[in-house]
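Still learning folds. Look over my entry:

…
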Amino acid sequence: MSHFLDRLQFFKKKQESFSDNHGEVSNEDRSWEKSYRQRWQHDKIVRSTHGVNCTGSCSWKIYVKNGLVTWETQQTDYPETRPDLPNHEPRGCPRGASYSWYLYSANRLRYPLIRKRLLKLWRAARAEMEPVDAWQSIVSSPEKT
């Protein structure tokens, strides 16, 4: 064997075999299994609907872990319809199934937007008046609008 391959022997596990080399006993660390098992655990399940321009208002089970949505499944406990009609379960559309992506998207608005000109008018009026009166002075003045 070459010198290079001899240096790579530390990758080979030291292990014992049994049953005519069909089984082996190793002393490897299995702590990685804990994180694998925890991947699919959650803190709570909440019932929700995806209300972004949604007319169906389908119910979803939202699985939450550490305050973040980890995954979603369709709720299947709707009341039954008439015996001659099929049930509506499960409800849900692809848009609803991708809703958790919208929650954490970089494109999501996290605070109200305001125009710079209006903000300047608001701050000037607010320095002299109460909030409702300040807004009324901006809205009622033709030169400000």
The first strand starts at residue 16 and ends at 18. The two ends are 85 Å apart (CA to CA). Residues 28 and 86 are 54 Å apart (CA to CA). The helical segments are 3-7, 32-39, 94-97, 99-103, 116-126, 131-140.
